[in-house]
Amino acid sequence: MMMGRRLRVITILLVAFLVSGGVLGSSAAATAGERREEAHLVPAVYVFGDSTVDVGNNQYLPGDSPMQLPYGIDFPHSRPTGRFSNGYNVADFIAKLLGFKRSPPAYLSLTPQTSRQLMRGFRGANYASGGSGVLDTTGKTLTLTKQIEYFAATKSSMMTNGGSNGSSAIEELLSKSLFLISDGGNDMFAFIVQNRAASEVPSFYADILSNYTRHIQALYGLGARRFGILDVPPVGCVPSVRVTSPEGANGCVGSANDLARGFNDALRSLMAKLADSGAMPGMSYSVGSSYNVVSYLTANPEAAGFKDVASACCGGGRLNAQTGCTPNATYCGNRNEYLFWDGVHGTQATSRKGAVAVYSTPVQMGFASPINFKQLISS
Fold first, then answer.
1. Which residue out of 26, 50, 51, 290 is catalytically annotated?
2. Phi and psi at residue 88, in whole multiples of 5°?
3. Measured distance CA(8)–CA(199) in Å, rounded
4. Distance from C-alpha of 68 to C-alpha of 72, rounded to nearest angstrom
5. How large a percentage of the chain has pLDDT more than 90?
6. Predicted confidence (pLDDT) per residue in 150-178, tens digit
């Protein structure tokens, strides 16, 4: 009885937050972030992961064709940037909430002239690569291992060239910066596409968690102290998965969501274990729940201002997910009313709502644990 009452209270609080300017008011929050651009809440943001946070690295890889419109149609000046979105992505909106104009630039786009702030320990860089996974065997783009190697090279250059106070100042700046990681979804997709048996799930989780541990330890060894982790969204709800399964005709594919949810539970336990082990003094973290955000938006579309939470805005065929979002594809005009931009990725509107949810909603709402990103930055 008490548990049911508690859940009702949380639901009421959540709806009140959405309606009164929390997630739905996040445009104003982002604008406020732009206004205080010179008052950054952290010295820099370093971004790692997959297409949910990639801002253009893949466009600099050999054989990778640059994105074309309508990707980027809602980005300033309507131009494709390498983001898997109609505009900004979640890395941009988290950076905005920290006082930056947008995500730091794609690492592979930097030149000696454009990397001056990075070398001084400010603003940061985005190493994320669409298609990557926690496992090095996932995807054919920049693995998470490679992304961290690029950061190690960055730090080496910072120590040589940056900061008037030398290496101690760089270490101090890194300890105050946010290390944002959003990865794991492609590992789930690979498991599903390969039709692997349910009996393989425990060893699959163990493999990913072992690699995640290695990545966190590597970043810690390079100076990271504040970790903002985004877990895996409900992959059974994305249009490209729904459209391939009879189960997805009337809703999300439960088996795919179960796979993601089980991993997310294990990821939270892993981060707590690492923080409590005593092996990483000064480490702090928050796990933002992309899973809970998308699940809530899917179950309560009207409260979030969405009219379509099943179809892709851009694409073709059933659910607009049977063909890709290409220059010849059809796309919706009311993009702020769609949860999904293409068959896999959220719209700019979804990224905005998600960023605010993990950043500032009270922890009891379930969008971040054990603290939210705002508390992480204040810690």
1. 51
2. -75, 160
3. 36
4. 8
5. 84
6. 999 999 999 988 555 578 999 999 999 99
Q: Which one of the listed residues 54, 183, 187, 342 is annotated catalytic?
A: 342
Query: Residue 311 in 3-state DSSP?
Result: strand
- How many other CB atoms sit within 10 Å of the CB of residue 20? 10
Closest of 109, 141, 138, 120 to residue 43, by C-alpha = 120
Catalytic residue among 26, 103, 187, 345: 345
Residue that has been written with the tokens 């699959």 in this structure: 204
3-state secondary structure 204-269: HHHHHHHHHHHHHHHHHHCCCCEEEEECCCCHHHCHHHHCCCHHHHCCCCHHHHHHHHHHHHHHHH
Residue 194 has pLDDT above 90, yes or no: yes
Residue with tokens 């644990």: 369
* Among candidate residues 222, 124, 118, 223, the one with its CA nearest the CA of residue 161: 118
Asked if residues 173 and 121 have their Cβ atoms less than 8 Å apart, the reply is yes
Residues in Cβ contact with 22 at an 8 Å cutoff, skipping those fewer than 6 apart: 356, 357, 360, 361
Where are the chain's structural domains? 24-234+254-289+338-378
Residue 68 near residue 22 (C-beta atoms within 8 A):
no
Question: Is the pTM higher than 0.85?
Answer: yes
Q: Is the pLDDT of residue 191 over 60?
A: yes
* Residue 345 is among the residues annotated as catalytic for this protein: yes
Dihedral sign for Cα 21, 23, 27, 32, please.
positive
**Encoded amino acid at 198, one letter:** A
Name the pairing type of β-strands 44-49 and 123-126.
parallel
Active-site annotation holds for 51: yes
User: What average pLDDT does the structure give for the chain?
Assistant: 91
The distance of Cα 14 from the centroid of its chain, to the nearest Å, equals 21
* CATH 3.40.50.1000 is right for the domain spanning 24-234+254-289+338-378: no
Positive or negative, the CA dihedral 193, 150, 217, 99 is: negative
Tokens standing for residue 58: 């893949």
Largest CA-CA distance found in the chain, in angstroms, rounded: 62
- Catalytic, 342? Answer yes
Q: What is the DSSP letter of 45?
A: E
Answer for the pair 243, 263: CB distance below 8 angstroms, yes or no. no
Token pair of 276, please? 């409590």
